[in-house]
Amino acid sequence: MPAWADLGRDATDTGFGIPGSGAPTMLAGVVAAATPTRERQRAFRLLGLARVAMAVLLLAWFLLTADTPRRPAPFVGVDLGLAYLALASFHVLLSLTRTRAFGWQMLAGVVTDLGIFGLMQFLGGVPAREFVLSYTLPVLAAGLFGTLRFTLATAAGVALILLSHALWTQGMLSAGAEPQLIGAGFVGAAYFAMGALAWQLSQRLARQEDRARRSEIRANRQLAINRHVLLEQPDGVLVLDGALRVETANPAAGRLLGLRDWELDAPGAEPLTRYPGASILADAVRRQAGSQHEPVVFDAPGGLRLQARVQPLRNLPGGPAYVVFVQDLRDVTQQMQQEKLAALGRLVAAVAHEIRNPLTAISQANQLASEPGLNAPQRARMNALIAQNVDRLNRIVEDVLDLGRAGTPDTIDLQPLRMLRELQSEFSPEPTGRIAVFADDPLATVQFDPQHLRRVLVNLLSNACRFASAGEGAIRVRLRGTRRLREISVANDGPVVAPELRAQLFEPFFTTDSRGTGLGLYICQELCARHGARIEYRVRRAQGPSAFGEFVIHPQLARHSPRP
C-alpha cells in the first residue's frame, strides 16, 4: 500500500496528472499517487530546501577542489552543480505553487538526485567519498512518499552506483579495488536498511495523520451538532467560566435574561454580574458553586418568573465552569398542566370503559327481571346480578376517590412489623397460619405515611389471598434489612404471572380476575412513588417447579434517622 495513499485524496488528481491524460498505471503503482495533505506538502518542501542546500555544498566543493590533482573535468562538475542547483530551486518553486501531479514531482526529484549525484561522483575522481552521504536525500524521499517497492528500488540504484564507481576506480588505483568494493557493498546495504526504516516511519505517520484527520472531523461534527442543539433549544443555556463570564449562550438565554445580541456575539467580555437581567442569576451561581442544589427561582426583566439549574463542571482544562439551564416558569407550569390533563384524560377514559360493562349487565338484568313469567329463583338471580355489578361500580368509584384523597403524605418513621401483625389477624382470623410474616430485624423502620403503607399492604394481601392456596404459609411476607428496611415482599404459592402480562401489571384497570377492578396495583404504585419508593413484581426460582411470584416494595433509603 502506498504511504499516505488514503490521506487527503483528491478524486480529480491521480498524482500523475489530470484524469484522461494517459497517466501511466505502472508508475501509479510504484509511487504514492495522491494529492498531498498539508503535512505531506510541508515535509516535501522541507526536503526540497535540503536539496537546494546540498546543491550549494556540492557546487562549493567542486569550486574549491578545481585545481586538485586527479580530478577529471573539474569545470564540467561546476556546470553540473549549477544545473542541479537550478533544478532543485525549480522543484521547490513548483512545490510551493502546485499541489497537483505530486507523484511526478517526487519521481522527478528522486531520478534527478540519483542521476546527478552519480555523475558528480564519477567526475569527482578517486576516491570521491564525499558523495556517499548525498544519496540520503533520494532514499528518504522514496521512503517517505513512495511505496516499499519503489523505496527498495531507489536503494538498489544507489548500491549499483556505488559498486559501479568502485569497479571504475579499479583501473585508476595502483592497489587492488577489493576495499572499495567491500565499502560500497556495506554502504549500499545501509541505504537498504535506511530506506525500509523511512518507509515504516512514513506508514506510522500516515496512520497517525489519518486518526488525527478523523478525530478532527468528529470534533467538528460534534461542534456543529452542539451549536444546532443550542440554537433549537427552547430553554436558555449558558456556559460560564470561573469568573462568571459568558462563554456560550443560546438565543433563548439572551431573550429570557434580557441580554443584547452584541453581548452574546462577544462572549467573555463582561462578567454576568454586569448584565442587569442576569445579576440575580450570578448571585445564585456563586451560592451554588460548591455543590448542586435545588433550582433557583428569580424575577427577570419584563416581569418573567424564571427557574435556573446550575451544574458545576470541575477539573476542566483552563479552570472550572458552570452550565446554567434557564426555564420560563410559565412554560413549566403549562407543561405540568398538560401532563395532568393528559393523565386525567386517560384515567377518565379507563373509568368510563370499566363502568360501561357493569352498567350494561345491570341494564340487561333489569330488563330480564321485568319480563313476565319469571319464577322466584330466576328473579333472585337477576337481583343478585344487579347487586353484584352495583358493588363493582362502588368499588371502582372508591378506588378512584382514594387516588384523589391521597394528598400530601405525612411521612414518619414506623415499624411495619406491628402493622403486618394486625393485618395478619384481620385477613386470617382463624389460626390456620395461611399468612406467615418473617423479619430480619423486628424493630427495623421505614419512612412512610402509615395510612398509605397500610393501603398498599392491604391491596397486596388482598391480591395474594385471591390466588394463593388455603394451606399453611401459602402467603409469605418478608421484611429484609436491619435498622432500615431494604425490601418488603409479599409472595404467594399461586400461579406465576405470565411473562407477556408482567409489563401491564401496574397499569390502571388491568386485571386477570373478573372480580377485580384493576386499580389496586396501580394505587400501590402511585402511593409508593409519593414516598420515593418503588414496587415491582419478580419471580423467584423461575427455572424450577417451585417457582413463585412476589411483589417487592423498595423503600427510599436516602434519609436516615436513629432507631426509635
Q: Trace the largest sheet across and list its strands.
A: 2-1-5-4-3
Shape: elongated
Low-confidence stretches: 1-23, 558-564
**Mind summarizing the main beta sheet?**
5 strands, antiparallel
Compute the number of helices: 16
User: Which strand-content bin applies to the residues?
Assistant: 5-15%
List keywords for this structure.
single chain, 564 residues, alpha+beta, Beta-Lactamase, Helix Hairpins, 4 domains, 5-stranded antiparallel sheet, 5-stranded mixed sheet, 16 helices, 12 strands, 53% helix, disordered N terminus, disordered C terminus
Q: What can you see in these coordinates?
A:
The protein has 564 residues and is an alpha+beta fold. The chain folds into 4 domains: 189 residues, no CATH class; 101 residues, 2-Layer Sandwich (Beta-Lactamase), CATH 3.30.450.20; 69 residues, Signal transduction histidine kinase, dimerisation/phosphotransfer (DHp) domain (Helix Hairpins); 143 residues, 2-Layer Sandwich (Heat Shock Protein 90), CATH 3.30.565.10. The protein is built from 16 helices and 12 strands. Strands 2-1-5-4-3 form a 5-stranded antiparallel beta sheet. The chain has a 5-stranded mixed beta sheet with strand order 7-9-10-12-11. The protein has a two-stranded antiparallel sheet with strand order 6-8. A hairpin with a 7-residue loop joins strand 4 and strand 5. Helix 11 packs antiparallel against helix 12, helix 13 packs across helix 14 and helix 14 runs antiparallel to helix 16. The N terminus and C terminus are likely disordered.
